[in-house]
């Protein structure tokens, strides 16, 4: 076991660099764990391979989160660089901790109706379009008037990496967009026209924060227990399509996913029929 002097030096160096007490405690914890993992050898006698082995152990045996592994790595880099004046090599062989796949929050069709029932006007239309098309909030707000082709039944959506895709818009949503373009938008753009499809009363672009607030407040008024954001409507769009019989490849195209593996998360969600069965027959449902 190295003498306490090393850890005292470590603590002192952290304080010189103005690290918080919380970070100080965490870094010292990882230094101790590292030393004990290698049989109380002094860190000066070790280097990259030992650090790599310790961090890989955290991922494979400890099953820590990526953020935890990154904190341990930062603590050991600081130890070697700032206290031992020794640079560690790039650790290509380190096993990285995996971030667990999060199952997205999805609303039922009834919950979507309840949410939309709390809105009217432009707020209702923008939120309805999110659910009707599966667009991201930024994509919806980035639409220009020229991106809309209701005769052909689609909008041109510009997604991540400036990649464009055609997103179908039909039925009720298309009719309301036509009415908005004819009756509402001209009232907002008398003095200024940003060219965006959705504008605020001053003719400027409707902000992303405004849309988030609109959706969140509508969900609260509707009594939804989920924390609802515009992205939840995108998840709901995909899930309801899949449940209705749409194929995964088509959903991938409509969502603009580069990799179908991203779209496959929706196959892990329970169907409405399964949820109804559970609620009907399970004693604790």
- The CATH superfamily of the largest domain appears as Intergrase catalytic core
Question: What CATH architecture of the largest domain do you see?
Answer: Orthogonal Bundle
Overall pLDDT = 87
Number of domains: 2
Spatial strand order of the main sheet:
1-2-3
- The total strand number stands at 3
* Broad shape: elongated
Query: Percent of residues in helical segments?
Result: 40-55%
Q: Gist?
A:
The protein has helices at residues 4-16, 21-37, 48-60, 66-83, 109-116, 121-133, 137-141, 171-188, 208-221, 230-243, 248-255, 260-263, 272-281; strands at 148-149, 154-158, 164-168. With 285 residues, it is mainly alpha-helical. It has a three-stranded antiparallel beta sheet with strand order 1-2-3.
Description:
The chain has 285 residues and is mainly alpha-helical. It has two domains: 4-83, Tyrosine recombinase, N-terminal domain (DNA polymerase, domain 1); 109-281, Intergrase catalytic core (hpI Integrase, Chain A), CATH 1.10.443.10. It is 54% helix and 4% strand. It has 13 helices and three strands, in the order αααααααβββαααααα. Strands 1-2-3 form a three-stranded antiparallel beta sheet. A hairpin with a 4-residue loop joins strand 1 and strand 2 (154-158). The protein is elongated. It starts with a helix and ends with a helix. 24% of the residues are buried. The mean pLDDT is 87.
